[in-house]
Each structure stands twice: as structure tokens, then as C-alpha cells.
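Continued from yesterday's entry.
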Amino acid sequence: MPFDYIRPLLRTSSSKIVLLVMDGLGGLPFEVGGPTALEAARTPNMDRLASEGVLGQVTPIRPGITPGSGPAHLALFGYDPLEYEIGRGVLESVGVGLQVGRADVAARGNFCTLDEQGNISDRRAGRIATEEAIPLVESLKKITIPGVSTEVRHV
């Protein structure tokens, strides 16, 4: 077992721990020299959590390596992302009940917003509402690729 070294550290406890991962919270300013969305936001609940909890930063793999959120999340739970190569597509697929086999490819994506010239103006479509996203997903389901079986889900 790859984590045998952890067994001697385990202790039974009735307490609970909350691990709050604010993945994707950072951002760039909307205007040069201006605040980021987080800096401009009113954050009383986050401020309270920060003042009453314990904060830290983690290097999930190695200095200089910026992992995707799937491998980084697994690293937080003790899985070596260099040994267990599991991406976000697989995690989200399993999360909605799809079975993912060794020969399968699981991918995830975001809808984006295009400006009048057809350029991407928001790579995450402003977090569009589920009611707006579902018809788009239904349109994607109609796309067929000869010799390939596909499954498209809204997550």
C-alpha cells in the first residue's frame, strides 16, 4: 500500500475538520493597477473564517509546477499526482455517475462568451445559469463523431 507510512500517525477522534479549498479564487485586475475581483469584493464570511481558522498555502506537487485543479485536489488528500494521473475530466465524470474506463477519455469544459467580433471576452461565460447552460449541452449532445461514442453532461 503506498501510504503505509501514514498508519502510525492515525488517531481516532470525534472532532471534525473542514478543509475549504478556494480553488480558482485568485485573479487578475480588470484594469491595470486596479483591484482584482477578490480585492474589490465585500467578504465578511471569508474574513471571519480567516480570522478564526488556520490559513496556509500548499505547493501540491513541486515548486515551479502549476498543476490543474484535479491533480492539486488529489494532492491535498495525500495522493501523489505524479503517480496517480487523474484529471478534472475524470473527477467530474465520476461525480455525475459516469463510469470511466482505462480506454476512455474524459474531458471537461466551460462555455465562453464571445464579443461582437467573435473573440472570447469571458472564458467562463460569466458563470451562466443552469437554465441557460442546459440547452447548450443538449446541442452538444447532437454532435456525432464517426467511430466514437460520446456522452455529454451538464455539471
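--- second protein ---
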Amino acid sequence: MPLFDFVCKTCGSSFELLVRGSSAPVCPVCGSAALEKQVSLPAQPGKTAGIVASARQQAAREGHFSNYAPSERPRRK
């Protein structure tokens, strides 16, 4: 179920809707079905502390440290 941006041709409001395959979207303001789909920018992947920590744990389990900065990598003897 993708999220789309729309502009209503009747009232001019812009909004986002989660559109299911079989449903026809309507304007939440005026109820019109005369909508124009807009091109929206994709969201960048998140870089939260939890995501970074889980990626680092996965890398350590697999034996590589590609998700670490060079200063954070373990020193080899």
C-alpha cells in the first residue's frame, strides 16, 4: 500500500493518502474524485542510533567491520 501525494482539482488542497489497490482516492476536504497525483521525493533511509547499533552488531557477527569508521575498528595485532 503505497503513500501518494495528491492535489484536488476542485478545491486545490494538497494531501497524502495511503492508497490500496482496489480503492479510488477522494479528497478529504471536499470529497471530490478529481485528483492529480504528484511526484514526491523519496524519504532518505534513517540513521538513528538504533539502526546504526543493529547494523554494527550484524557486521560484528559476520566478521566484518564495514559499518564502523576507521577509528572505531578493532586494532589487529
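The mean pLDDT is 81. The chain has one helix and three strands. Will compare against the first tomorrow.
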